[in-house]
Amino acid sequence: MSTIPIEISTEQLLRAVERLPADELDTFVAQVVALRTRRAHGRLGADETTLLLIINAARLEPAQQARFDALVAKRQAETITPAELQELIEVTDAIELRDAERLEALQELAQLRRTTVRALMDALGIRAPTYA
């Protein structure tokens, strides 16, 4: 793909980014984080880049998230069917696996950078989840 250099405002760039599909947005965010890290710490190695891609991977696509939310609501309302419950369990397992992979990548990256996971999360703008 060839590109033509242009100058746009950060507001125009943000509006363009808002229109990206979820998977492209995740890739873009990982690239921006990598850029910010390179500027702060010098060039990223392949290991750091790979870890940042894992860390910034999307949790669920919007349609999947909506389905997951609907299944959770049905379970809470006690109207979930056995098939839906099995689907909810499978999606939950996939989410937990992805979260575990993300945490492992955070730990590895923190070790590479000789910092704590908490400090790394702060540097990357990652907030710990809050539970109701």
Detailed description of the structure:
70% of the residues lie in helices and 0% in strands. By secondary structure, the protein is an all-alpha fold. It has one domain (10-124).
How would you name the oligomeric state of the polypeptide chains in this document? single chain
Largest sheet: none
The number of helical elements comes to 6
Order of SSEs = HHHHHH
| Helix-and-strand structural type | mainly alpha
Number of strands: 0
Average pLDDT, all residues: 85
The level of helicity is over 70%
Give the gist of this structure:
This protein is an all-alpha fold and 132 residues long. It has one domain (10-124).
Summarize the helices and strands and which ones pair or pack.
Elements: H1 10-18, H2 22-41, H3 46-55, H4 62-76, H5 82-112, H6 117-124
Helix pairs in contact: 2-3, 3-5, 4-5, 5-6
Keywords for this entry:
mainly alpha, 132 residues, 0% strand
